[in-house]
Design a protein that fits this description.
Chains A, B, C, D: Pfam families: HbpS-like. Four copies of one chain form a homotetramer. Chain A contains five helices and five strands. By secondary structure, chain A is α+β, with helices and mostly antiparallel strands. Chain A has a single domain (6-138), classed as Beta-Lactamase (2-Layer Sandwich). The first copy, chain A, has a five-stranded antiparallel sheet. In chain A, helix 1 (6-22) crosses helix 5 (122-135) and helix 3 (70-79) crosses helix 4. The radius of gyration of chain A is 14 Å and the shape is globular. Chains in contact: A-B, A-C, A-D, B-D, C-D. Strand 2 of chain A pairs antiparallel with strand 2 of chain C.
Chain lengths: 143, 143, 143, 143
C-alpha cells in the first residue's frame, strides 16, 4: 500500500480548488484524509462557513469507514436509515452521508485515503474532489 | 451459565471465515462478545475497511442489549423508531440495528455471547455468523 | 478585525515548515485556526504520527480560548490545575496546555487566529510557529 | 509502507500468548492495531477482566498517536502531566500511558501498527508484546 504523502495531498487540494474556480463554485473546504481516516491536509477558502472541515471530513471518513465513495454511503442512508443511524453512533457522529467524499485509489486499486469537499452542492463538491484526485495521479472512487 | 471461552471464540471466527470463503464474501470483520457485551476476540480480514469492528460489535451489542438477534433489532428499529433512538442514546451509540448480530446460546438456551459480522451484505454477514456459532457447538439465534 | 485569509494561512505553514527544515526538526503537523477557533488550514508532514492535528489544534484552541499563548496556558495548568481541569471539561477536551500554540495578532494587536504545532519538542514547535507567523506579516504572541 | 496483515497479527498474538505461558503470566488481553490505530485482531484469555481490550488498546493507541512506545508515553505522563491531560482530551480518552504498548516496525523502520497488552504487570505485558512482535518478523519499539 502506498502512503498518501503531503506532497500528493497538496496537489489534490490545488487541483480541486482550480476546478472549483473553473466551475465558479462557492468557497470550499477541502479535506484530505489518509487510509486510516486521519487528517493529512486541509484548506478552507475565504468566505466558506466555519464547519466545512467537519462536514468534508465526515464525507471522507464515511467513505473510508465503509469502503465506498460517499455517494454510495448516501444511498445506504436513504435505503437503510437504521444502518446509517447505527453507523453514526459507532463512529461517534463522524459520518456525513452525502456525495462529496471520494476514495483515493492507487494504481493497484488499494485505498490510500479519501478527499472530502464541502461548500457548494454535493454534486459540485464531488466534481472538484474527482478533479483533484485525478490531477495527482490517483483514481477517484466516488461511490 | 457457561462462559464463552477464548477457545470457543476462535472456533467461531475460524468457521465463520471458512463459510465466508465458501460463499466468496468480501473481506469481513468478525467480532465475538461475551454475555456482558465485552470483547472476547476479533479478526479483520485484509482489505476490510477500518470501522468493521465498530459496526460488527454494534450488531452483536444490540442483540445482547435486547435479548434477540439483530435481525429482530432491525425490525424493532423499523416498527418503533423512537425506541431505537432511545436505545441508541442510553447505549451511547453502541447499537447497529441491522442483521448480522447473532446470539450464541448454550444447550440450555442461555445466552453466553454474541457474534457480529460486517463486510458483505447483512444477510451474508448473518449466514457466516450462524455457520461459525454452529461449528463451535452452540445454537445461533439470529432474531 | 482582519480575517485570517487562506493565503495568509498558507504563508504561515510554508514558513513554519521552512524554519523546521532549517532547525532539522522531526516531522510536524501545523494547524492554523481562525479567531473563532475553526480550522483554516492544516498540513501534516510525512512520518508525523496521526494525532498531530488534534494535539496542535489543542494548543492553538487553548490559546484562543484563554486569550494568551499556550506557553502561558501551560503555566496556568501548573499553577491552577483545577482551572485547567474545568477548562478541559467545558471545552470538551479540546485544550492541550503546552507550548507551541501561538496567537496571531494583527498590526492593531487584535487576535485574528492561532497557530498550533506538534511533532518536535514544545520549544521547537513554538519556534516554528513564531517564524511562520512573522513571515506572514503578523505578530506572534506565544504567551 | 507494509500493511499489517491479519496473518501477521495472528502470529503476534500466538507468540505473545506463548511467551505469557512461559512466564506464567495472569490471563491477558492482546490487541493488535494497524498504523491508523484501527483494530486488526484481539484475543482475551479466559479469566481476564472485561476491560482488557480498552486498556491494551489504549496503550497501543497512545504509542501510535505519539510515535513512541507506551513506556515513553508513561514517562511523558510523569514528566509533563498537563500534556498527558491534554492528549487524553483530544484523543477522547483513548490513551493509556503505561508500558505494554509496543510499536511494530518493519525492516525499513516504518511503523506498521502497535500491540497493546494488559493483564499482568506492565513490564510483563510489555515483554509478551515484544516476544510476539519479534516472532512475527517485525521490530518492536517499546519506547
Amino acid at each position: 500500500m502506498t502512503a498518501l504523502s503531503l506532497d500528493s495531498a497538496r496537489k489534490i487540494i490545488d487541483a480541486a480548488l482550480a476546478k472549483a474556480a473553473d466551475l465558479k463554485l462557492k468557497p470550499l473546504g477541502v479535506t484530505v484524509l489518509d487510509a486510516g481516516g486521519h487528517l493529512v491536509a486541509f484548506e478552507r477558502q475565504d468566505g466558506a462557513s466555519f464547519l466545512r472541515y467537519q462536514i468534508g471530513s465526515g464525507k471522507a471518513f464515511g467513505a473510508l469507514a465503509t469502503g465506498v465513495g460517499s455517494r454510495a454511503v448516501a444511498n445506504m442512508a436513504i435505503e437503510r436509515p437504521h444502518f446509517m443511524q447505527g453507523l453514526s453512533g459507532v463512529s461517534e457522529g463522524r459520518v456525513v452521508p452525502v456525495p462529496g467524499g471520494v476514495l483515493v485509489r492507487d494504481s493497484a486499486g488499494a485505498v490510500v485515503g479519501a478527499v472530502g469537499i464541502s461548500g457548494d452542492t454535493s454534486d459540485n463538491d464531488e466534481a472538484a474532489a474527482i478533479a483533484g484526485i485525478e490531477a495527482a495521479g490517483f483514481t477517484p472512487d466516488a461511490g
